[in-house]
Amino acid sequence: MAICKHFGYPDLFLTITCNPNWPEFQRFTERERISIADRPDISCRVFHAKLKCLLSDLKEGVFFGPLSAALYNVLTKYMIHGPCGRLRPSSPCMKDGKCSKFYPKRFVDQTSFDEDGYPIYRRRNMGVAVKINDVDIDNRFVVPYNPLLLMKYQAHINLEFCNKSNVIKYLFKYINKDPDRVTATVGETYHVSESSQVVDEIKQYYDCRYLSPSESMWRIFAYDIHHRWPSVQRLTFHLPNQQHVVFDDADITTHVYLRNKDLLTIFTGWMIANRRFLDGRSLTYVEYPGKFVYCSNSREWKPRQRGFSIGRLSFAHPSSGELFYMRMLLNVQ
Ligand SMILES: [Zn+2]
Predict the structure, then answer these.
(1) Relative to the CA of 14, which of 58, 128, 185, 301 has its CA 20 to 30 Å away?
(2) Are residues 32 and 135 in the same domain?
(3) What is the 37 CA–ligand 1 centroid distance (Å)?
(4) pTM of the predicted model as reported, rounded to 2 decimal places
């Protein structure tokens, strides 16, 4: 939320999935004569490398430029939804006789927004089609994409325009939700009357989860589950002489006091910095990390040489009185 407060809400929403036919995998499987599905360690490492590459590409603004050729092949391979609907009612996306993702979409000449603010992307009726599972598929089945990204990464990359603040909720849900789980047993059925059936409550309680090989490897390699950029710095604050101090159980109180009494906190350090640096005086505490860096060793703020960071005030409950009002003040003063 601190990032949104600074930059505004997101514009794009991108999803990428691993492609088992990537040339890196094909070279390996040909040489080792083993399916890539049996080597989740390799697929995880390759996906991780591609993900890092993608993020740096996005930061450097390589994409979202003019179109290139050869696109048709990649697109028909990775970005076609279904077929579903009347063409293939057995498709997994079908719920109650309808596609749960609302495909096929309508042909439209121009991108617009529906009454709920969701985009209706341009889908031109150009008479272009591709045969998939013996059915002709046209523009109405294409999942939103970016041509250059698709060409470079050769994988399913869904890119959506998002202009609503509630997508933030969706992002947080993604990061924080547990993996999907199911409790199931395989057992024999034999005919016993209902009353004599033994109910094993312990067995019923088993709270199991299934970790796929890919997810297991991802965690064994200790790759990030989520990643945030630019960095957000949490800024603490306190009333006079109410700062937090760290001490050992065996420490003598007087020593703790003497050791801490002249030490600056990140907050009092900010006040000292405002005495020294004229440039920072127009900034609020939250804006300060954008122009200044806090060195925790020397406990002082210094003018920033490179990079960027967003500040976020730590929480204060409304019932905390003076501290709460101080937080309000820090947001403007
Ligand atoms: Zn569908």
Answers:
(1) 128
(2) yes
(3) 26
(4) 0.69
